[in-house]
Amino acid sequence: MVLALAIAAFASPASASAGEVIEVDGSRAERQADPYVPEGAESRLPEPRGGGAAAAAPRAGSSTARGARAVSRALGRARRARRISRSAARRYTRTAAAARRMLGRLRGSRRRELAYVLGVAERLALKGRLTSSRMPAVFLIVRRNASFWGSRGFPASGAKVRFRGSELLFQYYPGRGLQLQPLVNWKRANLMHGACVRRGASCRRDRLARLIAELNRTASRRSPRFIAWEYYFLFGGGSPPWMSAMAQATAVQALGRASKLLNRPDYLVVARRALPAFSASAPAGVKARGFRGGPHYLQYSFDRRLFIMNAFLQSLIGLYDFAKITGDAQARSLFEAAEPEAQREVPAFDVGDWSKYSYRGRESDREYHELLREFLASTCSRLRRPVYCNTARRFRDYQTDPAVLELKGPVTARRNQATRIRFFVNKRSAVQVVVTRDGDVGLDRTATFRRGEGSFEWRPKSTGAYTIRLAAKELRSGRGLRTRVEGSAEVGAG
Is residue 187 part of a domain? Predict the structure, then answer.
C-alpha cells in the first residue's frame, strides 16, 4: 500500500523543483530540501531535436525471454574471463531475476516504466554491449527501478530521487523510468565542494567522498583509451549507451576540485582516464568539427551536427579548471585546441535581442538564456576575452532593458483607404496599437512581432487629427518590461 505521505510527495509538481529531492527509505518516500540538488536549466536534459518523452521512449513491454538469456550469457562470459567476481555475478543475476519477477506482478504504467529499464539492459546484452565495466551502472538502475515501481506513485517529470544510504540522484523521465543522470550528479559534487570552500556554508566532506566513490563505480570503459559516465536510455534519437562532453568535463572538474579539498590524489588518476574522450571523435568520443572549422565538444555524442553553446562552454570551463588546479598538460592542450573555435562560434548565438539554444536551432527559453549568459560570464572571468565578456553583457541587457519602440508612420492618411501604421521594435514583443480621435477609439489591436519592422492595417472612417499610441511588452525576460510611444496622423478626404 502506498503511504499517504508518499502520494503527496509524488503528486505535487513541486517535487521536481529546485533544491528538492524525493528520498526513498524502504516503504517510505518523502520530499526533502537538499542544498546539493542542481536547479533549473542545469538539471534539465532537453530533447536534441525538440521531441517529447513520448516520441523518444520505445514501446513498453520490451523485456523478453531472449533478452533475459542474453543477460545471463553476458554475465557468464564476464565471470569466466574474470572481469567480475563470483559474488558480483551472483548479485547481478539476483537483481535481474528480482526485476523480472516484479515485472510479472505489475500492470499498466508501472509495468511500462520497469519494462523499459529492464529492456535496455537486455538490448545491451543482445548487442554485445553489456560489458563488465557497464554492469555496475546498468544493474544499479535496474535494481532501483524494481524497488521503486513496485508500490509507489508517480513522481513529476524531471523529479530527482535519492535512496537512503546513497548520495546518487536518479531523475525520472516518463516512459524511461528512473535514470542515473551523470551531469546532475557531478554538478551535485561541485555544489558539495562549493559548500566546503565558502565561509559559513555547511560542509559535508564525508558525503562528497561517498558521492564520488559511487560515481566512480558507475564509470564505464567506453574505449580502450578512456572511461566515461554514460547515459543508459534512448534520448532524442540516441541509443544507449551515449555520453556528453558537458557531463564528462564537469566530472573532470569536480574530481580535480575534490582531490585538492579531500587530499585524494587517486581522484586525479580517474579524471585523467576520462580526458581522452575529448580527443576521440563522436560517436565514440565527444569531439566533432565545429561549424567554424575547429574542434567542438558535443553535448550529445550521437549527434555530430548539433552544436549547443552552453554545453561547449561548460566543457571548456571544466577542462580549464582541471588544468589550472593540477597543471595537467593534456587538459590544457584539449582546452587550447577547442577554445578558439568557441570564440568564433559565440557570435552566431546572438540573434540581436536574445540567444539561440543551438546553432541553426531554436532560440533559448528563459532558463537556457540565463544559463548561457552565466557560462559566458564564467568564461569571461577566467580568460578576459572580449567576445565572452561583451556577449555576456549584451545577453544581460536583453533580460533587463525594455524594448526600443519607434513609430515610423503614417503622418497623413485618407478616409476609407487602407494604410499601415508602421513601427520598429528591437526585441520580440507583444505590440498594441490604439488609434483615437476626440476620445473615440478607431483601432485597438495587439499582435506579437519579432525584432524588426512591423505594421498594423488601419482604415480611418472620418477626417481629422488622430492620436496613435503604441505600447510594447517584451516577452522573453519574464519581467513584463513595457515601452510606450505616441504620434499623430492627419486624415484627409478620400
Answer: no
Contacts of 337 (CB under 8 A, 6+ apart): 294, 295
Distances in Å between the Cα of 357 and the Cα atoms of 95, 287, 309, 448 are 40, 19, 7, 21
pLDDT of residue 179: 97
Residue 446 forms part of a structural domain: yes
pLDDT tens digits, one per residue of 369-423: 999 999 999 999 999 999 999 999 999 999 999 999 999 999 999 999 999 999 9
- Give the domain range for residue 457: 405-492
How far is residue 308 from each of residues 52, 291, 311, 341, 364, measured CA to CA in Å?
18, 11, 6, 13, 10
- pTM reported for the whole predicted model: 0.87
In a 3-state reduction of DSSP, which class is residue 261?
Answer: helix
Instruction: Report if residue 431 sits inside a domain.
Output: yes
* Location of C-alpha cell 558535443: 298
Reduce the DSSP state of residue 292 to 3 states and report it: coil
Q: How far is CA 310 from CA 171, 217, 356, 491, in A?
A: 21, 28, 10, 52
Instruction: Please list the helix, strand and coil fractions of the chain in percent, rounded to the nearest 5, in that order.
Output: 45, 20, 35
Going by C-beta distance under 8 Å and a sequence separation of 6 or more, which residues neighbour residue 392? 373, 376, 377, 380
Domain-located, residue 426? yes
Distances (CA, A) of 361 to 24, 177, 200, 244: 39, 28, 43, 19
Q: Is the dihedral of CA 321, 326, 330, 332 positive or negative?
A: positive
Domain count across the chain = 1
- Average pLDDT of every residue of the chain: 91
Instruction: CATH number of the domain at 484, please.
Output: 2.60.40.10
The H or E element that residue 108 is part of is helix 108-126
Q: What is the pLDDT of residues 255-299, one digit of tens each?
A: 999 999 999 999 999 999 999 999 999 999 999 999 999 999 999
C-alpha cell at 229: 559516465
Sign of CA dihedral 118, 119, 122, 123: negative
